[in-house]
Amino acid sequence: MSLPAASQYVVIGAGIHGLSTAWHLARRLGEGADILVLDKGEIGAGASGIACGIVRNNYFQPAMRELMAHSVAVWESDAAAFSYHPVGYMQLSPAVMHADIAAIHTQQRDIGYESELIEGAADCRAYMRNLFDDWQAEGITSVLHEKRGGYANNQASLAGLAGKAQDAGVKILTGVTVTGFTFASGSPAITAVETEQGTIACDQVVVAPGPWARDFWTMLDLPDAITVREGGQDHADVPMWRFWQLEEGVLEMPPGEFRTNGGAMPPVLHVDTDAPLRSDRDGRVITDRLWGIYYKPDFGFGGIQGGAMPYRVDSPAETVAIDPYGPASTEFVASADFAEMWCSALAFCHKRFEGQSGRFRNEPSGGLGCFTPDSFPVFDRFRDNVFVIADSNHGYKMIGVGALAAQALTEGTMPALLRPFRFARFAEGDLHPVSHSPFPWS
User: Fold this and answer.
1) Where residue 17 sits, what CATH number does that domain have?
2) How does pLDDT run across 189-223, given as a tens digit for each residue?
3) Cα torsion for 36, 41, 44, 48, to the nearest 10°?
4) ∠ CA(196), CA(198), CA(201), 5° rounding?
5) Of 356, 371, 386, at which residue does a domain stop?
6) Do 158 and 130 sit in the same domain of this protein?
7) Beta strand segments in 274-323, E
């Protein structure tokens, strides 16, 4: 398909958010809807296509919990098409995080999201031993077991989502790089999307760029530094975007061998603890501070897949020339420190993983994450007719954001679930609460 001269709706990004928004827009607008999705690569060529695929509700922030409950329902609406596995999700935590986890459980119950809370070291160990005979993690005083949630296979889910969008009449053009926007004379509105192959006139634009959020923010001539009100004080010149490097990998073991005592596929496991972590290779202490990992058996990755805490990239300007998801990128190469830490952490949790670090495999997952000042998404309208979906690396699991963005575009008002993520929250001081988690997105 050649580049059209015009389209009513132009959606930039063929990842989870762009495809979901286009699909839901088409469903709302009906037959004859004029919706075009552009991507400089292929469908799922960015962060969505290499996502580890975890789907969870486990957030300390009420607004994130409610938004994720909405998204889980979308995953559940067609598990086969989305290659979704509803195995559940478990958050295991130390005493310092107990109050946070208890609050999450209470508020999940209040919104009708089923979960079970186990408290106390002895009861937690018994609960986990009932699932895994070889469970041996220390420093765990609470287990929050979400009965919904799980994970999806990244590329398969995007193929299913793209198929739904195309069946609804959405046009998808790949290999088209957006280079800028044409602004209306005397108005902040966008009149066209500029690409390397030509200009497309449009009425509405949806920007869903994943880790390239900063680049499109610049194209829209939005501020690269903002004022953030926190605790009644204004903090000026806060960088709008920060970058974190996410490291993930795979332990090459048959995923079907990692099952519960009853033979079922286990829930996704997220373990945080302040117990010392020792190297599974030589016994030295890797860290005696709060640390965390997540992992699951995954047939899509062909092993035990997961990751750990990301690290901050101190010079984000250096990432301008980096395509973190391109074929020549080295960003997928996990560090030796990460590999040893993650494999040792798996052995810390399960005896079956002791002595298995030699099976670690680098895998195209992780990469650069582009974060907002408070590490939570911005979903908002800018320049009158541009809707920006800047997911702050929470993206893949939030498949339901597209339905809400489509609602905002067609009804002209912001859905209640998206209002806590408006850009104005920074200046207003209406920020999300912060938990004790070692992960920046929590």
Assistant:
1) 3.50.50.60
2) 999 999 999 999 999 999 999 999 999 999 999 99
3) -110
4) 130
5) 371
6) no
7) 277-278, 285-287, 291-298, 303-308, 311-313
246: CATH: 3.30.9.10
Mean pLDDT of 164-168: 98
Position 136 pLDDT exceeds 70:
yes
Phi/psi of residue 275, nearest 5 degrees: -70, 145
pLDDT digit string, tens, across residues 69-88: 999 999 999 999 999 999 99
Instruction: Let me know whether 54 and 184 are in one domain.
Output: yes
DSSP 84-104: EE---EEEEE-GGGHHHHHHH
Same structural domain for residues 271 and 325? Answer: yes
CA 412 to CA 387: how far, in whole Å? 11
Q: Nearest CA to 22 among 399, 442, 436, 305?
A: 399
| Cα angle: 162, vertex 164, 165; to 5 degrees | 65
DSSP bridge pairs for 366: 247
Of the three residues 347, 371, 395, the one that is the final residue of a domain is 371
Contacts with 176 (C-beta within 8 Å, 6 or more apart), sequence order = 3, 38, 39, 40, 195, 196, 197
Helix (H/G/I), strand (E/B), else coil: 110:
helix
CB atoms near residue 379 (< 10 Å): 26
The residue range of the domain holding 166 is 1-85+150-238+374-442
Note the pLDDT of residue 367. Answer: 73
- Assess whether pLDDT exceeds 50 at residue 397: yes
Query: What is the per-residue pLDDT for 318?
Result: 45
Residue 439 banded pLDDT, cuts 50, 70, 90? low
Q: Within this chain, do residues 108 and 183 fall inside the same structural domain, yes or no?
A: no
Q: How many domains does the chain have?
A: 2
254 and 231 co-located in one domain: no
Prediction pTM value: 0.93
